[in-house]
Design a protein that fits this description.
heterodimer; A: alpha/beta; Rossmann fold; 2 domains; 5-stranded parallel sheet; 9 helices; 15 strands; 25% strand; B: alpha/beta; 7-stranded mixed sheet; 11 helices; globular
Chain lengths: 335, 336
């Protein structure tokens, strides 16, 4: 590996350690700290002059702190004459375009005054892309982008890796009766992703369709596909508060499903989401990847949470990018 | 550009547009005071935070072709500072999406102002990064106050108006000390000497300086007083008070050198860590602080803390900016 330095932000250091181990590289040293007044400070201890720098930071937890820290690290590398700055975001920051928050009981959204204009919610994706580019990033590497359109927000190359092989690997090795299970997408947006996995493993496929009536603000979900007496595997790219997953699992149980597995690439598990999922007792296993640091949650989950390792995938991507080889080969490789 | 186009752009510029004052979550009280001074309602634009800590902005009214002013100060302490910074960027970006004519960020206390140089190897110039981020988000103009180093204005490729709390500080001193011969202005460090000298000139008082040798950031080591403060009322002046270590120690030294009493006047009261405890047990008689930061909670906890309202300066700057009038009047005159 030529002239390469890999730095870790404070969001997911275990993943970087694994990547460095896989690549037999020393991890770049960086001092990240926060002053008492809340300002983040960054100091690189490894020289980056004319180096190919990789910085890994994941967008979960204290996202704003991590994002500012990432921007500062990029800026520090740029000021220290790095040749190229590659930013690895296993989970992209602000990756979901948020919906207008629903007005629920206890949730106070400022009432509309007597204006004629419709309220709307700002879309932040473009801003994040611009901030990263303006700080000095030259290349973005991410995984399972929630909206693949995000790639178009950048004027710099974006490599979007897929966790498909990891999911296939788990299906083939850890789910009994894997010849006869149903792959379920919990919403229409993820149908393509789930269908691709079902196709590649010759499994049947089902979809939960969410219908939100605006007038009554009531959610009605229905299941498209047959799951009776079958094991179901819900596949999604991101779990946050887990509301959708729990709702889908309930629906599947109502339709006579046997065991339910949930395989989700990015496990944010905001608040007590994981505990809530476990307490429903609907899931046989919850599977996520270490794109977000899961060390603490895995310990607390009593074996309910399985964590897939993405470090080899990112390690290989780093190696190929550094060598100037094609990255698309990874999309189809066997793990 | 042909004539037709030119006329279009001209007429567009002449159209009457309004001031819209937007408040992000860091300091709503200040935004309300500014709106009151401008006799305007606060715009119905809201920054909210989701459970996953991501923020976003909800816009309830039209901002098309208006002059937008976003009030967000660099505060929030250990937990919230970066959240508020992101909120500001998101709000600026939302305003560009809403087709605002101009977007001005009003940032009384500019965050990361102290990380303004490369004092070690391989550190970022964070203040410069923040300047770039603001411009990238779509900001056209920045209003700030008592920048830690006025060179930060040069980090921006957009206009920056650095306002001064000085006229209001002068007024406060004149109101409270009738005999200025008795008063000694003191700078707690060499960096602030210029600021204090200017105040002393305008008040026609003498000034002293405390020279400090610093071992580590946020840790004061040895302080030496330059000047005679015997039997004088000393006024320590600085641009910000963070951990308050410097101020408290300076006060002790001044009293040891025979000062009659010591008060402190600072523009930005950051008060991080155990600053409030330190102030409560310090030898300072009083600390005057502007409301560039939200301090209502601190006032209850700290009996010697007194607030100086600077919302009128910001409101007048907004009004003048909107009307295309000169701002420099505010540097030497108190507005009510």
């Amino acid at each position: 590996m030529r002239d390469i330095v890999i730095f870790s932000g404070s969001s997911n250091e275990p993943l970087v350690q694994r990547i460095c181990q896989n690549l037999s590289l020393p991890q770049g040293k960086v001092l990240c700290k926060k002053f008492a007044n809340g300002e983040t400070s960054v100091q690189l201890e490894t020289s980056v002059r004319e180096k190919d720098v990789f910085i890994l930071q994941s967008g979960a937890g204290n996202v704003n702190d991590y994002l500012i820290e990432l921007l500062l690290m990029i800026s520090a590398c740029k000021m220290a004459s790095a040749r190229r700055i590659n930013v690895i975001m296993p989970l992209f920051f602000y990756s979901r375009q948020m919906d207008m928050p629903a007005v629920k009981a206890g949730e106070i959204i400022k009432a509309k005054t007597e204006t004629t204009t419709e309220s709307w919610i700002a879309q932040n994706g473009m801003l994040i892309a611009n901030l990263l580019t303006s700080a000095g990033a030259n290349h973005i590497i991410t995984m399972d982008l929630h909206d693949s359109q995000y790639q178009g927000f950048f004027d710099i190359p974006v490599d979007n890796l897929y966790s498909k092989q990891l999911v296939q690997y788990y299906l083939a090795n850890f789910i009994p009766k894997n010849g006869d299970c149903v792959i379920v997408s919990p919403d229409a947006g993820g149908a393509k992703r789930a269908a691709a996995i079902a196709d590649s493993m010759s499994l049947s496929f089902a979809l939960v369709h969410k219908e939100r009536r605006i007038e009554t603000n009531e959610d009605r979900s229905m299941l498209v596909g047959d799951v009776e007496n079958k094991d179901c595997v819900i596949v999604d790219d991101l779990v946050d508060t887990a509301g959708t997953l729990i709702k889908s699992a309930k629906l599947l149980k109502c339709n006579g499903a046997n065991d339910i597995y949930a395989i989700v690439t990015h496990g944010l598990f905001s608040g007590e989401a994981l505990n809530r999922m476990i307490e429903t007792k609907l899931f046989k296993k919850i599977v996520t990847s270490n794109s977000v640091d899961q060390t603490e949650r895995k310990k607390a989950s009593n074996g309910m949470l399985d964590v897939l390792d993405v470090s080899r995938m990112f390690g290989e991507a780093i190696r190929r990018i550094n060598n100037g080889e094609s990255v698309s080969v990874i999309y189809n490789a066997k793990i | 550009m042909d004539i037709q186009e030119q006329e279009n752009s001209m007429s567009n510029k002449d159209t009457k547009n309004n001031i819209k004052v937007l408040a992000a979550n860091s300091h709503p009280e200040l935004a309300k005071l500014i709106c009151k001074k401008l006799s305007l309602p606060l715009s119905n634009v809201q920054a909210i935070q989701f459970v996953n800590n991501e923020s976003t902005v909800v816009v309830h009214e039209s901002l098309r072709d208006e002059d937008v002013y976003i009030i967000q100060t660099g505060c929030g302490g250990f937990e919230k500072l970066n959240d508020y910074l992101m909120e500001l960027l998101l709000m600026i970006h939302a305003c560009t999406q809403a087709s605002a004519r101009s977007i001005t960020a009003v940032i009384p206390n500019f965050p990361y102002a102290r990380q303004d140089r490369k004092d070690k190897s391989r550190v970022p110039i964070s203040a410069k990064l923040i300047a770039n981020l603001l411009t990238t988000a779509g900001c056209n103009h920045v209003i700030t106050m008592d920048l830690h180093a006025s060179q930060i204005q040069g980090f921006f490729s957009i206009p920056v108006d650095n306002l001064y709390a000085e006229p209001n500080v002068l007024k406060w001193i004149k109101d409270n000390y009738h005999d200025t011969n008795d008063v000694m202005m003191v700078s707690p460090d060499a960096g602030g000497a210029k600021r204090v000298a200017s105040l002393a000139d305008k008040l026609d008082t003498q000034f002293a300086l405390i020279h400090k040798e610093r071992a580590k950031a946020n840790e004061v080591s040895r302080m030496v007083l330059v000047g005679d403060v015997k039997n004088k009322s000393c006024i320590l002046v600085d641009d910000m008070a963070d951990t308050c270590g410097t101020l408290c120690k300076a006060s002790d030294i001044l009293l040891a050198e025979g000062a009659k009493e010591v008060i402190a006047i600072v523009t930005h009261g950051i008060f991080s860590g155990n600053a409030i405890d330190r102030l409560n047990s310090s030898s300072l008689k009083k600390i005057i602080c502007t409301n560039s930061m939200p301090l209502s909670k601190h006032v209850q906890e700290c009996s010697i803390l007194e607030i100086l309202d600077i919302s009128s300066i910001l409101a007048e700057a907004i009004r003048r900016l909107h009307n295309g009038e000169s701002i420099s009047y505010l540097f030497n005159n108190v507005v009510l």
